[in-house]
Amino acid sequence: MSNVTLSEAPPGVEGAGFFATTLDKAIGLARANSLWPLPFATSCCGIEFMATMGSTYDLARFGAERPSFSPRQADMLLVMGTIAKKMAPVLKQVYIQMAEPRWVIAVGACASSGGIFDTYSVLQGIDEIIPVDVYVPGCPPRPEAILDGVLKLQEIVKNESLNRRNTPEYKALLEKYGIATSNG
Amino acid sequence: MDKLTNQFIVDNLTGKFGQDIEILGEPYDLLTVSTISSRITELLIYLKDEESLRFNYLTDITAVHYPKQDKEFAVVYHLHNLFQNIRIRIKVFLDGSNPTISTVTNIWKGANWMERETYDFYGINFEGHPDLRRILNMDELDVFPMRKEHPLEDPNRVDKKDFYFGR
Amino acid sequence: MSSPITKITPNRPVFEDNDPQDELITLNIGPTHPATHGVFQNVVQIDGERIVSGVSTIGYIHRAFEKIAEHRPFYQITPLTDRLNYCSSPINNIGWHMTVEKLLGIEIPKRVQYMRVIVMELARIADHIICNGILGVDTGAFSGFLYVMQEREFIYEIYEEICGARLTTNIGRIGGFERDFNEVAFQKIEEFLERYPPVLKEFEELFVRNRIFIERTAGVAGVTPEEALDYSWSGPILRATGVDYDVRVVSPYCSYEEFDFEVPVGTNGDVYDRFMVRNAEMYESLKIIRQALDKIAKEPAGVFHADVPEFYLPPKEQVYNNMEALIYHFKIVMGEWETPQSEVYHAVEGANGELGFYLIHDGGRTPYRLHFRRPSFVNYQMFAPMSAGMLLSDAILNMSSLNVIAGELDA
Predict the structure, then answer these.
(1) Where is the NADH-quinone oxidoreductase subunit D domain (chain C) (predicted)?
(2) Closest residue by Cα to residue C221 from C57, C47, C401
C-alpha cells in the first residue's frame, strides 16, 4: 500500500480505456508539478528558503525537488532578499538566461518592494527590472508562506494557455522591461 | 607589568607628541584623543610598537561628518591592546574641501577595506592606499552618500509623489 | 544629489589587460554562485586548478544601514540590526540594546541579563550550526546538514515562544525584554539542552575522524596568529589560529564574568581547526545556557525589564488605559527624552567575531552617527590575498569556513 497521492486529473472526457482533455491542461499539469526552482538568494529570506528546502518543511513534496543553480535548466526564479542596484543587472542577466516558459516569485518584502530599505542603494522591488508572477509578503516570510507562494504559482502554471508566450501582449510585457524576445 | 591606565597613556603621549595631542575626554572609560593629520602615522606606529603601550589590534576605522564645524570630517580609529585589554580612540579632524590623510595600511593590513569603506562613504582620501576604490556602492555613483547633505532616499523615485496619496 | 543614481550598469571587468601569452585563465565566481552561499564576487586568475591571484568585489546587497540609522530613533534601529547577521539576529539586537543602555546608563537586573545570555547563546549555536553544516555540504556530506537543521528549527521554535518571530527576531527592548519567557519557553530550552548534545555528538563524529573530511580541510588555508591579528580578525576563526581573544571574556557584558566556560582555541588556523573551534563552542554555549537557567531559578521571578519608564516602552494595554504610560510612550516615540551627548563604543562577541557599535549621540531624536564594526566585513578582506596559491576547490571551503554573512558584509 503506497501513500503516494496522485494529483487530480484535469477536467476532460473519460470513457472505457481513454481520457481526453486539452493539451494545455495536460501540459500545465505536468509543468506545475515539476517546477525546478532557481534560488536567487541574497540575504535573510535565503536562510528561510534553506529551512523550506530542509526536512521540516520540504519543498520537494511539491515537485520542486531539484534546485537548479543553472538558469538554463530552471523554470521558477525565486528571488529572495534585498536586490541592491549593484545587483540588479546580474538578476536581469539571470532572468534573460532562463529558457521559456519561466516564472518569477518575489519572496519577501525587499524583493517585492524594497521593504524597510527605502534607500539610495536598494532597488525598490524587482518588478522594476523583470516581470513577477507571485509576490510573497513577509520580512522574512515563514517557510509556510514560501510554500504557499509556490502553490499559488502552480495554479498559475496549470491554467496558463500554451500560446501565452507567443502572444503580442507577452512580447510587449518583456519589451517594457527591455528584454528581447527570442522567437521573433 | 602594572595595569595600563588611561592616565599613563595620556602622560606618555603628551610627553612624546606635546602640542599635537589633544585629550578629548574619557567617555565611558574609553580614552579619546585627537591629533593632527600630519602626525597620525607616527602616532599609530608609536602606539603599536612602544613597549609600554602595545596597541596591537586595529578594531575599526570610520569617519564622521560635521557639516557645521570648521573642520568638517573626523576620521576615527579604534585600537585595542589585547595584552592588557584596554582600548583607545583616536580622532583626526580634516578640512572639508579636500579631506586627505595618510593611509595606515602599511601598519595594519586590515585597514585596507576599512579605509576603502570610509572613502566610499565620505570621500576621504587616504594617501598611499594601494587600491582606493569604492567598495560597497556602485562604481558609477558620483557622490559620497554618507555626507550629511545627501538624502537617505533615492531622489529619483517616481512612485512616491504626493499626487498618488491624494496630497 | 548632483546627478541621478538610479542608472543600472554592470560592473567593470577587473582584469582588463589580460595577456593571452601567459596562459592564465580569468574566472569569475559569483556574485551568485551556488558554492559561495551568498552574494560574493571573486574574479580569480587560475593556472590550471591553482589560483594565482584574486580580487573580491563586495557590496551586492549594500543597503545603507548606517545612513538609515541616522534617520531612525533608537528603538527603530533594532530591526535593522536583525538584518546584519541574520543567522544570529538576537546577538545583534541585544548588542544594540546594550549599547544604548550603556549610553543612557541603565542598570539591568540580573535576571534579565541571564535571559539575554540564554538567547544569545542559542543564537550562537544556531549560527554555528549553519556554518558547520554548510561546510559539511561543501565537502560532500549533505546528510549531516539536514540532521542539524532540524535542531535549528527547534531553536526557532524557542525564539517564537520568546518573541514571536523566527529569523529576524527583533528581540527585547531597550531596558530588557518586551515580555517574560513563558513556561513553554523554559520547557523548550530544557528540552533543547537534553536533545541537542547527542545530535551534536553524532554530527561531530561524522566529520572529526572522517578521512575525506580531514584530507579536504586539514592544512587548508592555515593562518598564523600574526597574520590574523594583522588583518584584524576576530571570532572563531581568530581563535582557530590560537589567539584566545573572546569579547565575552576580555570585556564581559551581560554578567558573562559569572559564567564558567572555556574559550576553545585551535593551533593551525586551518579549515579543520575552525570547524573544531565552532563545534567546541557549541558545547560551551550549552554549558552557559545550563548555568544561566540555574541562575534564573535563584532570581526573583517575573522581572523581565529594568525599572526605567522614561526609556522602556510601556505595554500597549497600559498606553491605552493609563495616563502616565501614555505620556512615556509619547515621549519615547517622539524622541523627547533626556539623553546625554556623548559617544560610546560597545562590542559583543557575535557568532563571527567582535560586533561593535560605535554610536555618536548629540541628544537628538536619532543617533548622529552609528557605525557598525562588522566582523564579516573585516574578516573577509583576507580571503582574496590568502587564496593566492590555493586550489580552487580549497578556496571554496575556505570561504564557507570563514562564515561570511552577506548582510553583515555589505551592511
Answers:
(1) 138-410
(2) C401
Per the structure, how many domains does chain B have?
Answer: 1
Per the structure block, which three cell numbers stand in for B150? 545627501
DSSP B113-143: HHHHHHHHHH--EEET-TT---SSS-TT--S
Q: Which of A83, A112, A120, A123 to mutate to test the interface with B (most CBs of B within 10 A)?
A: A120
Gap from B152 CA to chain A (nearest CA, Å): 5
- One-letter amino acid at B150 equals H
The answer to whether residue C120 sits within a structural domain is yes
Query: Minimal Cα distance from A88: which residue of B?
Result: B138
The answer as to whether B84 is a domain residue is yes
Q: Does A86 touch chain B (CB under 8 A)?
A: yes
| pLDDT score for C1 | 37
Q: CA nearest C404: which of C177, C191, C166, C237? A: C237
Q: Which of B28, B154, B156, B157 to mutate to test the interface with C (most CBs of C within 10 A)?
A: B28
Residue C2, pLDDT score:
39
Would an 8 Å CB–CB cutoff place A18 in contact with chain B? Answer: no
Q: Where are the beta strands (DSSP E) in C49-140?
A: 50-57
Q: At a CB cut-off of 8 Å and minimum separation 6, what does C371 contact?
A: B60, B62, B76, C66, C357, C358, C359
CB contact under 8 A, A85 and B138: yes
A177 is in an annotated binding site: no
C262 found inside a domain: yes
- What's C382's domain CATH number? 1.10.645.10
Residues C155 and C131 sit within 8 Å (Cβ to Cβ): no
Distance CA C246, CA A177 (A): 50
CA distances to C24, C221, C270 from C49, in Å: 11, 16, 20
**Which of A98-102, C14-18, C303-307, C401-405 is the least confident region?**
C14-18
Residues in chain C: 411
pTM of the model: 0.92
Q: What is the ipTM of this complex?
A: 0.93
Q: Do B153 and A119 touch (CB under 8 A)?
A: yes
Question: Could you report the per-residue pLDDT of C287-340, keeping only the tens digit for each?
Answer: 999 999 999 999 998 899 999 888 888 888 889 999 999 999 998 888 888 888
**Residues A73-87: what's their mean pLDDT?**
91
Write the pLDDT tens digit of every residue in C51-66.
988 888 888 989 999 9
Q: Which chains touch A (3 or more CB pairs under 8 A)?
A: B, C
